Batch of 2 targets.
Target 1
Amino acid sequence: MIGPINLTVAGLTFRQLFTRKRFIASALFAASPLVIALFFRATAHANDPTGVQFLRELYSGIVAFVLLPLAAVVFGTAAFGGEIDDGTIVYLLVKALPRWQLVLSKYVVAVFSTFVMMFVAILLPWLALGVQSDSAPLLEGFTAGIALGAALYCAIFVTMGLMSKRALVMGLLYIVVLEITLSPNVVGLKSLSVREFVMTVVGKVAAGVPGVKVGAVSTNTVWTMGAVILVASLALGIRWLQQYEMAERI
């Protein structure tokens, strides 16, 4: 055990998340931006010889907007999802582990898995285009952004995986309805949009890169609302697991 993380539970979760088929699918998923980057490199672009503008659009439009939430919803909902579906979660509940430690252990694995996949997704195109020095702040900014996004998205989706057998569908609806459809168009919802938080962090870290899209919320909103979303989601998941245990005993 390391602090609040139980290594046995974390290792079990990691094996559950990365079955052979899912590992191959994850590798292809993370490599998809590289394919786009190689196609870009194979063609001439007089207006963007270094590829910085291309990377900026690739990272914001594909990685942050599409791949990050999709990776998080898959890993987050699967952290508990399989055990809820087949009922094997009762074997975890009989162990003398605090319920908060059980949730946090699985949450950390989901965050780590999502972050690693997305870091590969932004690193490979950057390397493929020749590691331009003026694009380094862009890489740093999106690394920080996806770290925050992975932490917040996975908190939401791990709890969804605990609460519903249709968590994957619910998570996809959350992404499509809130993140893609409503938050870009409804001002009041921007302060609840993880994507806006990600882009605010990117804009802060990569402020020196021309044309970087900045989120529509302030840094204070990111940390305040981000903390609320993180704590509330995990607290709800822990509470639900405790109630699930009580129901099983009854």
Target 2
Amino acid sequence: MTVRRLLLTSTLACSLGSCGGDSEPAADSEPAADLGPQLLESARAGDATEVRALLGRGAEVESRDSTGATALVAATYGNYVDVARVLVGAGADVNAKDESEQSAYLIATSEVELMLANGAEVDAKDSYDGTGLIRAAERGHAAISGRLVETSIELDHVNRLGWTALLEAIILGEGGERHIEVVRRLVAAGADVDLVDGQGVTPLAHARRQGFSCDRADSRAGRSPRALVVPAPRAIPLRKSGSIVSE
């Protein structure tokens, strides 16, 4: 009876966690909720290795900071493509917006293909009611503009300023090579060269204000019906096909 009682006592003690020799009790793991700020900080710093580690420890991929930005938005602001890939792979929402109405898709530069492949809403709007195409045109991102016009995005959407992507490229580009290429791609895609802004000014008129010379050639003679010309060798054609008119 005494032996049985000792065995029962020993079994009860082990079940309560008192056996195991001199081993130390396991330290409590850090609550996943507390990892959110670290995830955002690492994403903002472009540290893909740490972001991956934090996600592995249970950090919430959609954690937000005081501005409403997710880790993906924070990474995209810094153009940290590797971090963005890690976060998207973990299920980050490419359409989640911060308080300024910016999503990873709308901010994206080199990551735009990643965003499109993971469900980006191509017609999403920012706080100016501008599309991703308008933002790309404003910044002179020709490759992104060219990619976006291949989607279902609204080519001639007008933002709160009364400007289309074409108007933004002309007005804000000031004749720079990057913006000239954006204009080429927009026109080739069918952008409306006669769509006026909020003050009734056409893209052609804005071009003149930027110091470009303009030619209205006769399309029946096989020439461009309308072209915006800058000193050779640069030219911004405001037409869909045909030769570039130069002076």
